[in-house]
């Protein structure tokens, strides 16, 4: 099959007509499938709009051309839909999960997550996947009959399990959650609506997860080049990018560096997408899943890079880690950003009246536990944009870092 042709719907794709439904029953839409409806709800949510001013790597005011969480999410969705189309999966569910995957990220990227996790360490910690689940199940207040977005079971499953199962069938946490257990935002919710944490998620969710990796790799290279943290020729230290750069030089010997970088990013995305499609088809040929339940009961992810492509992708991540994420300029700004969130959390704990009225407990301060109060403050800060966090800090403190 040509890479440009869409595959027919696969037997192992999620079928919107056979969705497990929603926690709160609603009449079906006359014009949209359940998964299309989920996607529209994510797009129209307040949390999605706030992604416009949340850091990907560079704080929003460092430049208009750098990625934000919003532009990153759109790029993930574009890659994810391309993969879903090739593999005969449901594109609407895939897009839903791609657009929703970062809704729970706090301001200032991973620095913000580290700061909130430290602030909430005695109260269950902070996990952005768990926070995304909170956003779509309770923190969005747009509907008269329920909190959250009341997404389908399949969308909630994909949000929580897109990177694989969280527990064994016994319920014991493993992987990244082995030491600290399942985050309370997830463990509390599955007591109400079981998302079967022991099973793999749908192929649509797995596609969204790997599309996130592809977007990170390619577009962080693009942003790093634009920021001057490294040059195109610095990327020759990796075999894959060196080969692409050599091919570009052969085809366009007089190309300027800006266009060389853009062409490199395009070719890299195409290479990684092709690698996913070929390896996934190989795994599907072996596994022969006949339904989405067969996918959930597989002992491994079916959407994956081949070993050589996975090695090349890991080399890119390592390069970006050392040359971009750990760059002194980025580290300095992110360290100052952590300080801002530490200051805000401590201030709200000490002076609850500094919170907006809608974020105060209905029954007063005495009506909640210390953990309830900490989690409420954490939810408020996690929903902030970079610029709102800076504005709040300027309002409450005499001196605020410039983050430049």
From TrEMBL:
Ranges for the region named Disordered are 1-36
| Keywords of this entry | Hydrolase
Q: Which domain of life is it from?
A: Bacteria
Matching Gene3D superfamilies: Hypothetical protein af1432
Bias-annotated ranges (Basic and acidic residues): 15-36
Q: Which residues form the HD domain?
A: 69-217
Spell out the SUPFAM superfamilies in the cross-references. HD-domain/PDEase-like
Q: Which GO terms describe its molecular function?
A: dGTPase activity
Secretion signal: which residues?
Answer: none
| Biological process (GO), any one | dGTP catabolic process
Q: What does the similarity note say?
A: Belongs to the dGTPase family. Type 2 subfamily.
- HAMAP family (alphabetical): dGTPase_type2 (MF_01212)
- The protein, known as: Deoxyguanosinetriphosphate triphosphohydrolase-like protein
What organism is listed for this UniProt entry?
Bradyrhizobium canariense
């Amino acid at each position: 099959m040509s890479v440009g042709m869409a595959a027919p719907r696969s037997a192992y794709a999620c079928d919107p007509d056979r969705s497990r439904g929603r926690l709160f029953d609603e009449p079906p839409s006359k014009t949209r499938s359940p998964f299309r409806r989920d996607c529209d709800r994510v797009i129209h949510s307040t949390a999605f709009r706030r992604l416009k001013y949340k850091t990907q790597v560079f704080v929003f005011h460092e430049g208009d051309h750098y990625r934000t969480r919003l532009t990153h999410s759109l790029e993930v969705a574009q890659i994810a839909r391309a993969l879903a189309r090739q593999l005969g999966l449901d594109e609407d569910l895939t897009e839903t999960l791609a657009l929703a995957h970062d809704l729970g990220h706090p301001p200032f990227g991973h620095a913000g997550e580290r700061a909130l996790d430290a602030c909430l360490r005695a109260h269950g910690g902070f996990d952005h996947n768990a926070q995304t689940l909170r956003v779509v199940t309770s923190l969005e207040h747009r509907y008269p009959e329920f909190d959250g977005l009341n997404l389908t079971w399949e969308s909630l499953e994909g949000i929580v399990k897109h990177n694989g199962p969280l527990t064994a069938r016994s319920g014991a946490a493993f992987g990244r959650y082995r030491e600290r257990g399942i985050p309370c935002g997830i463990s509390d919710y599955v007591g109400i609506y079981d998302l079967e944490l022991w099973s793999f998620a749908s192929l649509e969710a797995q596609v969204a997860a790997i599309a996130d990796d592809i977007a990170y790799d390619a577009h962080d290279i693009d942003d790093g080049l634009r920021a001057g943290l490294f040059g195109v020729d610095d990327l020759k230290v990796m075999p894959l990018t060196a080969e692409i750069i050599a091919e570009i030089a052969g085809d366009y010997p007089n190309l300027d560096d800006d266009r060389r970088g853009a062409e490199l990013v395009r070719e890299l995305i195409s290479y990684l997408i092709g690698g996913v499609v070929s390896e996934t088809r190989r795994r599907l040929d072996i596994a022969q899943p006949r339904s989405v339940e067969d996918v959930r009961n597989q002992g491994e992810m079916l959407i994956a890079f081949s070993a050589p492509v996975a090695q090349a992708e890991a080399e890119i991540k390592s390069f970006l880690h050392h040359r971009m994420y750990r760059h002194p300029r980025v580290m300095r700004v992110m360290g100052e950003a952590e300080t801002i969130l530490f200051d805000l959390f401590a201030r709200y704990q000490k002076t609850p009246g500094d919170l907006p009225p809608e974020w105060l407990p209905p029954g007063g301060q005495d009506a909640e536990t210390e953990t309830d109060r900490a989690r409420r403050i954490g939810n408020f800060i996690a929903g902030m944009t970079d610029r709102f966090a800076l504005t709040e800090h300027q309002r409450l403190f005499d001196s605020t870092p410039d983050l430049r």
